[in-house]
Amino acid sequence: MQKITRWIVPLAALFALGAFIYIAPPGLLGKADAVGYAICHRIDERSFHIGVRQLPMCARDTGTFTSAGITLLLLTFLKPKRAGMPAKKIIFTLIAFFLFWAFDGANSYLYLIKQTYEGALSQIPNAYMPNNTLRLITGTGMGMGMGSVLYAAFNQTAWKKLDMRPALKEWRELAVLVGTMFIVDLAILSGSSIVLYPIALISVLGVITLLSLIFSVVWMMIMRQENSFTSLKEMWIALTAGFTLALIMLIIIDILRFRMTGTWGAFPM
């Protein structure tokens, strides 16, 4: 079985990558749009822009997946192979970030319904006027939580020798993460094309990385390979399979959504 997967998995990855490149709009940002298209509404006024060009995802999802990707990267380099979930005091903070994200999202969605359907839910007042700055900030907090939890879950599943110390144990560790993302968010809010172009790509890489890690964990469980690796080199098949499954999921959603809407833009209102 292992000999077969050594051939099938790379071939499937090449096929999936080729299919994604084929169906996606042209250009590097076009491919980025196709990733955002699978997981985001892509409403123009709720997104940041490079000049007049919309980023691949809305402000909230840009914050979420940029933050999640950077969180995974920092933890990988600063706390390699740590498999413990964040300490309780950190977990409570991450839960607070999630609640802010959920509340702002609900308030924003309520405003969207009122804009879209005249008179709908008019009796329910908005807590405040939603805006892209709050969407970015709350998304960033959510991304830190997603990245931290997934980092621990992946390490718990992958490594033969477990290091159950939390990657986020002390306040100073969380402060480094929050400080880093604060600087990134300020850069995004500057509106500079020099910043937003790489952010467009980083946010998309964040999506692909999260999905690939999740599907890699699923692959390890299905193949009964949990806690059997000592290095990334050893798990290349599982990581490649995760990447392939992530691409297949994105392709299926893209095709279904395009058939429904006939556009690579936002859902028709």
Q: Can you tell me about this structure?
A:
- The structure is a single chain.
- The chain is mostly helical and 269 residues long.
- It has one domain.
- It contains eight helices and four strands, in the order H-H-E-E-H-E-H-H-E-H-H-H.
- The strands form two sheets. It has a two-stranded antiparallel sheet.
- Strand 1 and strand 2 form a beta hairpin.
- Helix 2 packs across helix 7 and helix 2 crosses helix 8.
- The longest helix is centred in the C-terminal third of the chain and has 30 residues.
- The protein is globular and about 60 Å long.
- It starts with a helix and ends in an 8-residue tail after the last helix.
- The mean pLDDT is 94.
Report the C-alpha radius of gyration, rounded: 20 Å
How helix-rich are the residues, as a percent range?
A: 55-70%
What best-fitting shape do the alpha-carbon axes yield? Answer: globular
Which structural class best describes the helix and strand composition?
mainly alpha
Arrangement of strands in the largest sheet: 1-2
Intertermini distance: 49 Å
Order of helices and strands: HHEEHEHHEHHH
* Overall pLDDT confidence: 94
Number of helices: 8
Main beta-sheet strand count, sense and barrel state: 2 strands, antiparallel
Number of strands: 4
Describe the structure concisely for a colleague.
This protein is mainly α. It has helices at 2-23, 28-39, 59-78, 88-116, 132-158, 171-189, 193-222, 236-261, and strands at 49-50, 53-54, 82-84, 163-166.
